[in-house]
Amino acid sequence: MNTLDQIVERKLDSFHKKFNRLGCLLRWLSCHIQRIYPHHLSA
C-alpha cells in the first residue's frame, strides 16, 4: 500500500511539472498573441 502511494505521488508530481510547463507556455503564447493582436483581445 505504501509503495503504491509513493508511485501515485511520483506520477502526480511529474504530471504537475508537465502541467506547470504547459501553463507557462500558454501564458507566454498569450502574451505574444496580445502583443501581435492587441486590438482583438481588448474588446
Structural class: mainly alpha
CA gyration radius, whole angstroms: 18 Å
Please state roughly what percent of the residues sit in beta strands, choosing from under 5%, 5-15%, 15-25%, 25-35%, 35-45% or over 45%: under 5%
Average of pLDDT: 87
Low-confidence stretches: none
Shape: rod-shaped
Q: Quaternary arrangement of the chains shown?
A: single chain
Query: Helicity, in percent?
Result: over 70%
Output the helix-strand order. HH
- Tell me the total number of β-strands: 0
Number of helices: 2
The profile of the biggest β sheet is: none
Distance between the termini: 53 Å
Structure, explained:
This protein is rod-shaped. The chain is 91% helix and 0% strand. The chain has helices at residues 2-36, 38-41. The protein is mainly alpha-helical. The protein contains two helices and no strands.
Topology, pairings included?
Layout: H1 2-36, H2 38-41
Which tags fit this structure?
mainly alpha, 43 residues
Describe this structure in a few short sentences:
This protein is mainly α.
